[in-house]
């Protein structure tokens, strides 16, 4: 492997575009994508189906060629470097194990992709397989046929196989996509723990935001072949960049803002106080601004608690309360999601503790907590 250029990110995509040969002339799977992954980072690309996530991994692996831009590994342009010399591992969506081989045989196949002088002898090989099985929580499974394993166990074998050649970059395509929710939630934590322990550099793609947020140091949100936001899970969660990202993360309370004055946004629900009116973002701004109110920021009180009046503990000019009807409850484990039909504006989603949730059919008054609001900028390709 050529020496690493100092300080270069392990992976860098510079203005990468990709178009499949049989696609329409202006139909790009990726458009002008910039992306960096530093050694030891776990970065997940998140986006809806068809957004270009798998194409991005295939480009880095050398299975596709960019139509513009460059893919660099350790600072070196990979244009003429074939897949097997890039030192990257790719675990596919369907984990593609060999059904006729046992667990050890599948993992040893990963070892076989090491360069010739670097291949272990059979005893060494078995020791490496056992160590990898131990790492992925399958100690003692070496001789089992893969066909007799559960989906989650097969996923771990696929991971061990991808880790076997010691890739400098491990790429995962929907790593937990086929598993049921409970198993996914458990495995995602195990994966995170394993990557931190091994110091593995990972580029994963998924359409599942929970998976991306639980596993990653950084999340890159893509839509229609473009990167629309990049940041730590906390940054993206707290400040979605646009109505598209907010909705993709599962937030439904997103409305256009007519104008913002003295820290209050004019919305279809009426006036809503917004966070930090000193924030330049909150100044009266151009149209195309949207407001997100998180469910936790939709505060409910019985309808007789002063509908249409400023709230008792708020300032004298606080926005008046909005009346709404409770349409449905969704049980979410530790809280209840509440769907409301307000007297004006689109439906609202609120959250309440189990014992505080007003019953279906009840009329409530709604106030908004400014700390749970986020002003969003609509981008040109961002149809809400
Ligand atoms: N082999 C191909 N030939 C032509 N077009 C393709 C090919 N593979 C993908 N595409 C197109 O490229 C775009 C991006 O596809 P890609 O598979 O990268 O998206 P994705 O985000 O991984 O989607 P998914 O989550 O469904 O796997 C889509 O519009 C898709 O139809």
Automatic annotation (TrEMBL):
Residue ranges of the region described as Disordered: 268-291
Gene Ontology CC, one term: ATP-binding cassette (ABC) transporter complex
SMART domains the record matches: AAA
Domain ABC transporter: 11-249
InterPro entries: AAA+_ATPase, ABC_SmlMolc_Importer, ABC_transporter-like_ATP-bd, ABC_transporter-like_CS, P-loop_NTPase, Transp-assoc_OB_typ2
SUPFAM superfamilies reported for this sequence: P-loop containing nucleoside triphosphate hydrolases
Coiled-coil residue spans: none
Enzyme class: translocase
PROSITE patterns per UniProt: ABC_TRANSPORTER_1, ABC_TRANSPORTER_2
Keywords, comma-separated and alphabetical: ATP-binding, Nucleotide-binding, Transport
Molecular function GO terms recorded: ABC-type quaternary ammonium compound transporting activity; ATP binding; ATP hydrolysis activity
Superkingdom of this protein's organism: Bacteria
Biased composition (Low complexity): 272-286
EC numbers: 7.6.2.9
PANTHER family: SPERMIDINE/PUTRESCINE IMPORT ATP-BINDING PROTEIN POTA, SPERMIDINE_PUTRESCINE IMPORT ATP-BINDING PROTEIN POTA
Name listed for the protein in its UniProt record: ABC-type quaternary amine transporter
